[in-house]
Amino acid sequence: MIKAVIFDLDGVIVDTAHYHYLAWKRLAKELGMDLTIEQNELLKGVRRMRSLEIILELGGISLNESEKERIANKKNGWFVEYVDQMKPDEIFPGVKEMLKSIRAKGIKVALASSSKNAPRVIELLKIENEFDAVVDGTMIVHTKPDPEIFLLAASKLGVAPAACVVFEDAEAGVEAAIAAGMKCVGVGSLEQLNKANIVVAKTADLKFDQLVKL
Ligand code: G6P
Ligand code: MG
């Protein structure tokens, strides 16, 4: 029996995953590397500093902590610039209605994003009041695929993990949801997200009767 649905943000509610990619690609270029779309999959759902470390590992580059801090901030500055241009209608089609209709059926809805920019993004999209709980990257110690973020969301909602369904577009996120003992809807390609219970191309493609049967 499903009592809560937990949504990832970037790539599930809005295409900010693309802005993360553009900003990382720009940074990689400054480092003399080309970050491919396949390599970018490794960064999805993973927090900022870990993402940078993955890029540096791919490029065989080693930097000290203060230099890493400096360039991670640079990437974030670009990401914020892209996001600040966003209009509320950039939310994926049908998602706002979906959040409302799930809640109208008495099921709780939470947001769980590794991004420290999540509060800014949901405010820009004007959906900050559509959630019963919000967990962002400032509230967690361990990054996905660790289940911490989803367990924290469930505890904020007062719902047992087994009664939660997670929507995720990142492999690390699907693994985190499963490790939390939750059901998972993968948003994206079946090849990438085959550990999820079901995979849809777009968030709003999942029908309510499919959700309750998971
Ligand atoms: C999300 C995205 C990642 C991003 C992470 C941290 O999980 O999927 O691509 O690296 O958030 O985002 P931040 O905005 O804090 O740098
Ligand atoms: Mg995501």
How would you characterize this protein structure?
With 214 residues, this protein is an alpha/beta fold. The chain contains nine helices and six strands. Helix 1 (16-30) crosses helix 4. The chain starts with a strand and ends with a helix. The site of 6-O-phosphono-alpha-D-glucopyranose has 18 residues, from helix 1 and helix 3.
Which descriptors apply to this entry?
binds 6-O-phosphono-alpha-D-glucopyranose; 214 residues; alpha/beta; binds magnesium ion; 6-stranded parallel beta sheet; single chain
Overall pLDDT score = 97
> What is the structural class?
alpha/beta
Q: What kind of assembly state do the chains in view correspond to?
A: single chain
Q: From N to C, what is the helix and strand string? A: EHHHHHEHEHEHEEH
Q: Uncertain runs with pLDDT below 50, 5 residues or more?
A: none
Question: Which molecules are bound in this entry?
Answer: 6-O-phosphono-alpha-D-glucopyranose, magnesium ion
C-alpha termini separation:
9 Å
Radius of gyration: 17 Å
Large-scale geometry: globular
| Number of strand elements | 6
> How is the main sheet built?
6 strands, parallel
Which percent band covers the strand fraction? 5-15%
Widest beta sheet: strand line-up:
3-2-1-4-5-6
Q: Please, how many helices?
A: 9
Approximate helicity band: 40-55%
